[in-house]
């Protein structure tokens, strides 16, 4: 088995969170237009089949090409290569450039370089959101871990694999090595896929600049959005101090003022 490239390894490793597709189907149900920021290869996009206008943005050309040819995604969905911190859809011939629902799934916000990148993304989303529209996103929770780290309670990586997958009939063990800088709120993760005799089959490194719940809420407010509420998992459990996920929704502040 040959060494996999990073994009293929990412595709095999990051399969989403249980219930996320169904959640985004629920919160976008009935919408005439849906914009997905960080759509990747269209894993979540299939949830928007009922909307007449669906647009997905991502920076990865290979993933977008796969999304365009996916039989699970409506043929009318348009996939565009854009930086979600600086996009402007006015230059495209689209059915609409304002959307009733905008979604940012699967930790995409943590890949934008920190608070400045997240704020830029929120600003662009606000500019493309219909007055009564809603923005929804999910990220993994960091508040409890950040508090523990600041108190001096350190965690260590487990030596056990985080996943075991079947690649071409062979069992492959996936290991994760994490380095967390709580002062910078930065998480560096390296994944390795090992086959028989510990042969290295794939390796990938990622950097996430994470934010806390209050920081995310503050950035939403700064760009003109008001928090609708949040959930602690994709089944709709209330957001707690130590949730499984952080899922937040927001709407134009003007919608609350009318």
Question: What can you tell me about this protein's structure?
Answer:
The chain is an alpha/beta fold and 258 residues long. It has two domains: 6-140 and 212-257, Rossmann fold (3-Layer(aba) Sandwich); 144-209, N-terminal domain of TfIIb, CATH 2.20.25. The chain is built from seven helices and eleven strands. A seven-stranded mixed β-sheet has the order 3-2-1-4-5-11-10, with helices on both faces. Helix 4 (115-127) links the parallel strand 4 (99-104) and strand 5 (129-139). Helix 4 (115-127) crosses helix 6 (213-222). The longest helix has 13 residues, at 115-127. It is globular and about 55 Å long. The model has no long low-confidence stretch (mean pLDDT 93).
The CATH homologous superfamily of the largest domain is called: Vaccinia Virus protein VP39
Alpha-beta content class: alpha/beta
Gap between N and C termini, in Å?
A: 61 Å
Tell me the CATH architecture of the largest domain: 3-Layer(aba) Sandwich
Number of domains: 2
Assess the beta-strand content as a share of residues.
25-35%
Which CATH class of the largest domain is shown?
Alpha Beta
Spatial shape: globular
- What number is the mean pLDDT? 93
Q: How many DSSP-defined strands?
A: 11
Describe the oligomeric state of these chains in a short phrase: single chain
The count of helical stretches stands at 7
CATH fold-level name of the largest domain:
Rossmann fold
- Tell me about the largest β-sheet: 7 strands, mixed
Order of helices and strands: HHEEHEEHEHEEEEHEEH
């Amino acid at each position: 088995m040959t060494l996999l490239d990073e994009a293929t390894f990412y595709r095999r490793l990051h399969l989403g969170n249980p219930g996320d597709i169904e959640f985004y189907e629920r919160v976008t149900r009935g919408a005439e237009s849906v914009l997905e920021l960080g759509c990747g290869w269209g894993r979540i996009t299939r949830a928007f089949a009922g909307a007449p206008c669906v647009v997905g943005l991502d920076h990865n050309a290979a993933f977008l090409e796969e999304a365009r040819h996916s039989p699970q995604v409506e043929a009318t969905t348009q996939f565009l290569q854009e930086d979600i911190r600086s996009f402007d859809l006015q230059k495209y011939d689209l059915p609409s450039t304002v959307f009733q629902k905008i979604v940012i799934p699967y930790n995409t916000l943590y890949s934008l370089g920190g608070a400045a990148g997240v704020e830029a993304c929120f600003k662009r989303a606000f500019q493309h959101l219909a007055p009564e529209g809603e923005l929804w996103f999910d990220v993994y929770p960091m508040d409890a871990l950040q508090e523990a780290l600041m108190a001096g309670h350190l965690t260590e990586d487990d030596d056990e694999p985080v996943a075991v997958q079947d690649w071409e009939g062979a069992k492959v063990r996936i290991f994760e090595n994490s380095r967390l800088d709580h002062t910078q709120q930065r998480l560096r993760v390296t994944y390795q896929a090992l086959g028989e005799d510990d042969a290295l089959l794939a390796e990938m490194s990622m950097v996430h600049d994470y934010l806390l719940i209050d920081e995310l809420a503050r950035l939403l407010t700064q760009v003109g959005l008001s928090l609708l509420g949040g959930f602690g998992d994709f089944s709709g459990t209330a957001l707690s101090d130590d949730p499984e996920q952080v899922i937040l929704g927001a709407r134009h502040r003007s919608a609350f003022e009318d």
